[in-house]
Design a protein that fits this description.
By secondary structure, the chain is of the alpha/beta class. It contains eight helices and 13 strands.
């Protein structure tokens, strides 16, 4: 007959055996995972091409978001090239200029930038992608519209307002307003001619007509470089960065606030008497209440009314 002490000792022995076997099994199961983690810890993040979307109307808000994406691309050592994925009719002049400068800073940092137009890359959107080394377009996409639209307040100060100068409430004379629009137009045209260089087959005067071109035509006249989609643009960007093995990282697209510049369409927009699509521009609640100010747009389309506002 087994004593109580022998029974307790046997039970303890079996417990030790069970624990030991369990430890071995757990070690066998976890060893491959631990090895992968150990190997990965000493490896660098794989090189990547960042795809930065430029979608919808360009306002101060969307420009800030796109600028943040480009800033992240410059700071992230694993990002070796950038592709601008463009489908935008343009927007306000200040926001479009801000994007141009942000893209220019990216190329100046030694990061290759290639643009891909999917849909439209017109006016301010075209302005923004000028620093890109190559512009890819699909045959039916729309690019160009190198011009500026200006909207001026209707009149001077109301009788109940006190102003400190004759032009304070009017934003300047008609001639001064036209001069500012012309200055912005010249600046836009000069940027395009300088950036496109010998690739551009259009004269400065032809470019100033602010025409839009189908992708197939734009490729022939030098407004764009290559016929191809986003995959071709990514491949070119990778080649420019001397990448063979790389990942593709898509940045978050800008959030459209639904205010400021709103494009008309067959469903939601309005047309003129000839049936041409127009651009409906609505007043933003973030603008100064009741104060009309001059606005300058690098936008493909025509304002439905003079009340134009950015969303910033």
């Amino acid at each position: 007959m087994m004593s109580a002490e022998n029974g307790a000792g046997g039970t303890a022995t079996w417990l030790y055996v069970v624990v030991a076997v369990a430890a071995v099994l757990i070690g066998v199961l976890l060893a491959p995972q631990a090895m992968r983690l150990t190997q990965g810890a000493g490896q660098d993040t794989p090189d990547s091409v960042a795809v930065v979307p430029i979608e919808g109307p360009i306002t101060s808000s969307t420009a800030d978001q796109i600028n943040a994406n480009l800033r992240e691309a410059r700071r992230n050592d694993s990002i070796k090239a950038v592709v601008l994925d463009v489908n935008s009719p343009g927007g306000t002049v200040p926001a479009s200029e801000a994007l141009y400068l942000a893209v220019n800073r990216t190329t100046a940092a030694g990061i290759p930038v290639v643009a891909s137009v999917n849909g439209q890359g017109a006016s301010g959107a075209y302005w923004a992608m000028m620093p890109a080394s190559r512009i890819y377009v699909t045959p039916g996409s729309i690019v160009g519209s190198v011009g500026v639209i200006g909207t001026k307040p209707a009149g001077g100060a109301a009788g109940s307002q006190i102003i400190t100068g004759p032009d304070k409430g009017a934003g300047g004379t008609e001639a001064e307003f036209r001069d500012r629009v012309e200055m912005l137009r010249q600046q836009f045209v000069t940027t395009v001619t300088n950036e496109r260089g010998d690739r551009l087959e259009l004269s400065r005067q032809e470019l100033s007509y602010a025409k839009v071109y189908a992708g197939s035509v734009a490729q022939r006249n030098g407004v764009a470089d290559e016929i191809g989609g986003i995959d071709a643009a990514i491949q070119r960007a990778a080649e420019n960065a001397d990448l063979e093995d790389y990942a593709v990282t898509r940045m978050d697209p800008p959030e459209q606030p639904g205010l400021g510049i709103i494009l008309g369409s067959q469903e939601t927009g309005r047309t003129n008497d000839s049936g041409t699509r127009r651009v409906v521009v609505e007043q933003s609640p973030f603008d100064y209440d009741g104060v009309e100010t001059p606005h300058y747009l690098a936008l493909y389309g025509l304002p439905e009314r003079g009340e134009v506002s950015d969303d910033g």
